[in-house]
Amino acid sequence: MAQKVRIALDAMGGDFGPAVVVAGAEIALARHPDSEFVLFGDRMQIAPLVEQRLRLAAVSRVVHTDVAVRMDDKPSQALRQGRWKSSMWLALDAVKRGEADVAVSAGNTGALMAMAKFCLRTMPGIERPAIAALWPTIRGESLVLDVGASIGGDDHHLVNLAVMGSAMARVLFDLERPTVGLLNIGVEEVKGMEEVREAGTILREANLPYLDYVGFVEGDDIGKGTVDVVVTEGFAGNIALKTAEGTARQIGEYLRSAMSRTLRARIGYLLARNAFTALREKLDPRKMNGGVFLGLNGVVIKSHGGT
Amino acid sequence: MAQKVRIALDAMGGDFGPAVVVAGAEIALARHPDSEFVLFGDRMQIAPLVEQRLRLAAVSRVVHTDVAVRMDDKPSQALRQGRWKSSMWLALDAVKRGEADVAVSAGNTGALMAMAKFCLRTMPGIERPAIAALWPTIRGESLVLDVGASIGGDDHHLVNLAVMGSAMARVLFDLERPTVGLLNIGVEEVKGMEEVREAGTILREANLPYLDYVGFVEGDDIGKGTVDVVVTEGFAGNIALKTAEGTARQIGEYLRSAMSRTLRARIGYLLARNAFTALREKLDPRKMNGGVFLGLNGVVIKSHGGT
User: Fold this and answer.
1) What span, in angstroms and rounded, lies between the C-alpha atoms of B207 and B212?
2) Which of A186, A223, A234 is opposite residue B246, by nearest beta carbon?
3) What are phi and psi of A300, to 5 degrees?
4) How far off is chain B from A194, nearest CA to CA, in Å?
5) Which chain B residues are closer than 8 Å to A76 by Cβ?
6) How large is the ipTM?
7) What is the set of domains in chain A, with CATH numbers?
8) Chain A residue nearest residue B182, CA to CA
9) Are B151 and B131 in contact (CB under 8 A)?
10) Helix H or strand E segment including B102
């Protein structure tokens, strides 16, 4: 895209504050030279960090505010104390006012969702927004949603997720008709998950022109890339996401210890180091984390605190 | 344990039938020389396989039946057609009659659960049995349950799972007071998951002498080994298990392709081959699969079809 992308950044979000956010903006600018940034937060902390980076400074503007949402604020607290004035709110509001194309925050997910709903409102027909994660697979990448915005949900919620997810997959993966699967467990006569089966019936019968519903998928289908869009409610989706991250980290741990156990293995490691570096990139759990909020009147990205 | 363990085997279960089951029994015997086997199924198929293996033949007995539960039978079908006479039923019945200590089947999980409930009945106070998985972690191993027997469940079901799981962990890991965590998502003000929070309150207030309830854990805590016993209902638990398996397989795939891309990497791989073999053992998804049925009057193990 040669079009300028205007990014509103909550510079105070995340576990490490402005230092990490500004460093992240620099990386984003290197990858997407057509970006422009508005950074919201404490000018005294942000401005020196931006000024050190000449290219970033040239396309950035800092908007001062004293108020920041804390990582341990409850969503209701964050709304009460941070509405109209926190760095998180101001970033969202920039999207609402059309001054930015996308708001990015590494802050408190619950607070960001509550504020985003309050500030941007949900799209017509959508009751609850969703968080979609871009999931690396053997085939490439899939979209998994919801990974934590909703807890539970009826058949209509799941159908909404399928529609929102496939709309995003069409743009992101440049597909006419993304394949969509409902996450389920392989057991026949699944009790209590009527909503998943109901959603399947609705999707099959609706036969929508812009998505290709292929049926149920299981947890191991996510990494295989069996479908472009994996649909589930936020509880199971979040547990799947976190479990995959944990497994990747665990295997990285095993690999490190296996490769340092003997001299042969250490020499082997040195020779294959480039391959390992590439692998580590792929396994980086921070790549999997975060997500895009769908169903709002405006684009909001929750980025990972450590990125 | 120097005690003899009598194993009732459903020799017809699984995707590959007796050949894999008998081969598995031979491996089990090598690891646990004090095992004895009763194999249920088609004698014509089983007997020649057993006779080829002298050590196994010496401690095995074959009980013939024509009926086998198919992998795609519904639980209700399996019960209707296979009760009293299928290889799966006869293996369970051997445990009921005290002729075997444990029944093992690689067959249809739903059918096995239905038959096990019907044949062995649940323990007093337990409404629904659970499937517990032994999960490899960075610290060692944890028990995760339920990974697919129940779908959804109220606070009392979760408390039951915590009690059953910690009883198993005490025996398996030889611990006085295993640590127990409830699987949840990290977001504050989690809506709709009152049952998880309620179960947490009950467990905290009960302060049981034989388990140490430590609070909520997230998906990535499973692989870290944060607690000895991870408690969740079967839908999320099954999705977590399958997702972890899928991630392990996916990373194995990445590793293979990374290690064969350049000559240097290939040489490095050859030098570090032993380390990779050890790693592959650890990553083997078949090690993670299957599980032990808890809450029945008798021990039933679902083994993986491919093992």
Assistant:
1) 8
2) A223
3) -130, 130
4) 11
5) 189
6) 0.86
7) 5-120 (3.40.718.10), 130-237 (3.40.50.10750)
8) A239
9) no
10) strand B102-105
